[in-house]
């Protein structure tokens, strides 16, 4: 695809949090009201088989913004530092003359070799990735948002997070069918949107890049009015799970650990009890609330789009809409983003490119795509170069309807489940922390999950698309296990760190070979 030749090459990268792919109307979620996302899908290309390369938030955003697989960037959990030697999207944008602005967060812990041990960033789950200029940050302590509320005249409760409790002093924590105590005009979604409009209105015609992050539909699962009751529980999609959580737990030791350990408190502010105790009615209501949070983000995004329309910038702006990771939402009795299930890894991706060829608008692309592809896509569209060590590939050919002959034939994603301060799998499973990892190779037929030190899993996706029946131990499928294990190994070998492997010393001096 040719580069945009306009002098105003703008990029809007919208990164929402915990929005799973099957909650996109263009991909079948007809129960949702998202007119602005619907417009973006009509004018752009929607990717049906798109995954984040890892979970949770920090590692996922590291892959999204560095273009590297987890096995290469090694920021394996929210609290694990990102090596300063890695470049990222912001640093590469600066090379080509952009001042990359960021609203939201990246959940990045700094390299301890670049600062002192008393750096306050080491007391939080993560801060901002180097290279971005914050114009509306949320991390590390949400001080920007809570300060904004105070400036707006909103009286914060003694415990600031209580704004996400249900309305009414008599309402028990965990109830999701009442509105939150914060009004929609004061929500974090409203805060991010105001910051975005303030930034855009200050550009005065200069080209811009904006990473616009939204915290929702991330928990706590509570929505302000009128979004709290926009959807009926009975209209939500059916659950995918076995008859009991104990039956699910028998599939694998890691799944057993999470089913026994995930509580409701991280998802409903002030709540207690195990996630497995939620009955189908409670989960349906939770999904209805989750949908309301999605519609709130969509309405906010509509304000940004309207401004770009009014100022005639929409036509010159590359817009990419995606999420950091998905959400289990009760499927397999799980909440959050853990393990190896599709619900945690399949995420939305929509790209509207101003110079896309006629006929591309509104198309659904079935090729396998990954979050590491976003960085190379943006850089190519702006005339930059993909870093040598990046694991992803530009999606612009796919946007144009031209699938490269050597495009990937499977999806690859990873998860590192070592101990962090809020979860201790390695202790419970009796593993060394460097053995707490898995990778997945998945195509249209099979899903193979390889663990460093636990039994593998194999699912026949044609017969068992939701991954209930593990076939890895069945003698009849030993050949399939072998083939996909070899594919996983070959994939890792091809993508081993290669920043300098195309250089060589010669009698005439240093040579750089064309990769």
Helices, strands, pairings?
Blueprint: E1 10-16, H1 35-43, E2 45-51, E3 54-55, H2 57-66, H3 70-73, H4 89-95, E4 101-104, E5 133-137, H5 143-151, H6 188-201, E6 209-213, H7 245-249, H8 253-261, H9 280-310, E7 317-323, H10 342-345, E8 349-352, E9 363-370, H11 374-381, H12 396-399, E10 411-416, H13 425-429, E11 437-442, E12 446-451, E13 457-460, H14 478-494, E14 503-506, E15 509-512
Parallel strand pairs: 1-6, 1-7, 2-9, 3-10, 4-5, 4-6
Antiparallel strand pairs: 2-8, 7-8, 10-11, 11-12, 12-13, 14-15
Structure description:
InterPro entries: Alkaline_phosphatase_core_sf, HdlasePehA, Sulfatase_N. This is Alkaline phosphatase family protein. Keywords: Hydrolase, Metal-binding. With 515 residues, the chain is an alpha/beta fold. It has a single domain, classed as Alkaline Phosphatase, subunit A. Helices cover 26% and strands 15% of the residues. It is built from 14 helices and 15 strands. It has helices at residues 35-43, 57-66, 70-73, 89-95, 143-151, 188-201, 245-249, 253-261, 280-310, 342-345, 374-381, 396-399, 425-429, 478-494, and strands spanning 10-16, 45-51, 54-55, 101-104, 133-137, 209-213, 317-323, 349-352, 363-370, 411-416, 437-442, 446-451, 457-460, 503-506, 509-512. The strands form three sheets. Strands 5-4-6-1-7-8-2-9 form an eight-stranded mixed β-sheet, sandwiched between helices. A five-stranded mixed β-sheet has the order 3-10-11-12-13. Strand 12 and strand 13 (457-460) form a beta hairpin. Helix 6 (188-201) packs parallel to helix 9. The longest helix has 31 residues, at 280-310. Residues 1-6 have low confidence and may be disordered.
